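Example for tutorial group B:
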């Protein structure tokens, strides 16, 4: 990520006052050094007069810290004896002397459909600053990056500075630190690969910059203090008797229809096909990449024909894109520990496989103590393998069940080339010492 700096304050620009310096815009550190020199003060003498440490003054003048806190700038101005236009110029330099030119956010590939509720909730969480480290979790392809981009765009439109970090926009946390001040700002870490290094930098920024919020997208919670983990589930499925009037109101059905009309413009929901369309959406769990892949088959299938095909082989229709998604799901499933994998297997067995179950029913099925079973359910929900159908009830996704069966069929040879565990870095216990807000699921 290239962050450019636009200097805004000219030393000789206030009220026509001539400071004997160049009239071009200067950074805060240069302005501070100029005023200190005019007073004939050393850094130590200014530190004594202002009660600001010598190190802080040195860091400001060298440009290592380029945007001081308001109270720091006020104390230094008092130490320099600045009044009137000189003090106004000094404060203006603090506020506007270094304003990073915000790089553009990644361009979305399409419209965001069916995530209005999630977008509003996540936006309000980050806007309020009630949680300063938020991790959006869930299966690969479920829409974490697209939702994060929508929320980031909305907050930037409201005036909040937004920085985006991913494989295509790499940067160092140390490079970002001078550009994040006290005001509200958002840093998005999209699917960070080098999680340990990035999170150490983010933790440092959170400690130093009280207005900063960090939004991270990942398949699993980071497991650090102060984290608010928000699982992103599949799109909501149609409820009740499907009809041409009610079916498009379902987020999952709306996305399927959106993709169908790319290959069959003018396609309409009718009384004859509404039931089959609703059943297809349910069969595919409301998972966005699966709905996209299914829609491509409307070039050759009618809804009832495609439903019959999916009922017989839920993975047989996979396009190249969905095959990549299934690989990612199988990686997640293969990364479960023994207890998590055992519970997943129990939930996948008939009778009741694919139906939603209450937490009490899952506890009974597992044969585990309540606390241990609840911990495992929490973990599977955070990974996106279980969906919360309604309060207190959970369902194993049909595509996840099929992917799990495929892993078991492939045997030891295939399993050997799959990751045994998702990478979990080591974190120091005090990394997030100043962000110890309550963890939520």
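The residue assignment follows.
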């Amino acid at each position: 990520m290239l962050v450019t700096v636009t200097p805004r304050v000219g030393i000789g620009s206030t009220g026509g006052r001539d400071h004997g310096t160049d009239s071009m815009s200067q950074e805060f550190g240069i302005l501070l050094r100029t005023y200190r020199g005019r007073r004939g003060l050393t850094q130590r003498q200014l530190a004594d007069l202002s009660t600001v440490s010598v190190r802080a003054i040195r860091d400001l003048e060298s440009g290592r810290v380029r945007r001081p806190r308001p109270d720091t700038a006020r104390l230094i101005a008092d130490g320099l004896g600045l009044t009137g236009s000189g003090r106004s110029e000094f404060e203006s330099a603090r506020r506007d002397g270094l304003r990073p030119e915000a790089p553009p956010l990644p361009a979305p590939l399409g419209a965001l459909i069916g995530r209005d509720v999630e977008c509003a909730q996540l936006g309000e969480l980050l806007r309020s600053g009630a949680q300063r480290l938020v991790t959006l979790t869930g299966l690969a392809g479920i829409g974490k990056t697209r939702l994060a981009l929508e929320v980031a765009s909305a907050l930037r439109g409201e005036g909040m500075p937004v920085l985006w970090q991913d494989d295509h926009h790499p940067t160092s946390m140390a490079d970002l630190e001078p550009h994040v001040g006290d005001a509200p700002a958002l840093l998005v870490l999209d699917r960070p690969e080098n999680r340990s290094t990035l999170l150490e930098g983010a933790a440092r920024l959170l400690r130093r910059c009280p207005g900063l919020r960090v939004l991270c997208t990942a398949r699993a919670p980071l497991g650090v203090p102060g984290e608010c983990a928000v699982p992103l589930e599949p799109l909501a499925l149609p409820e009740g008797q499907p009809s041409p009037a009610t079916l498009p109101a379902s987020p999952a059905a709306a996305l399927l229809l959106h993709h169908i009309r790319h290959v069959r413009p003018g396609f309409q929901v009718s009384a004859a096909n509404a039931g089959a369309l609703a059943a297809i959406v349910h069969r595919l769990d409301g998972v966005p990449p699966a709905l996209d892949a299914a829609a491509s088959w409307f070039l050759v299938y009618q809804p009832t024909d495609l439903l019959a095909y999916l009922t017989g082989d839920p993975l047989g229709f996979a396009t190249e894109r969905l095959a990549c998604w299934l690989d990612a799901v199988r990686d997640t499933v293969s990364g479960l520990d023994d207890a998590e994998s055992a519970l997943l297997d129990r939930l996948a067995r008939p009778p009741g496989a694919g139906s939603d179950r209450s937490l009490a029913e899952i506890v009974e099925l597992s044969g585990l103590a309540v606390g241990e079973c609840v911990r495992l359910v929490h973990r599977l929900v955070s990974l996106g393998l279980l969906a919360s159908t309604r309060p207190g009830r959970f369902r194993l996704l049909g595509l996840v069940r099929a992917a799990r069966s495929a892993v078991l069929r492939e045997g030891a040879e295939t399993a050997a080339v799959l990751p045994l565990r998702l990478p979990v870095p080591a974190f120091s216990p005090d990394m997030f010492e100043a962000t110890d807000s309550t963890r939520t699921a």
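Residues 398-415 form the longest helix (18 residues). Compare this with the pattern of hydrophobic and polar residues in the output above.
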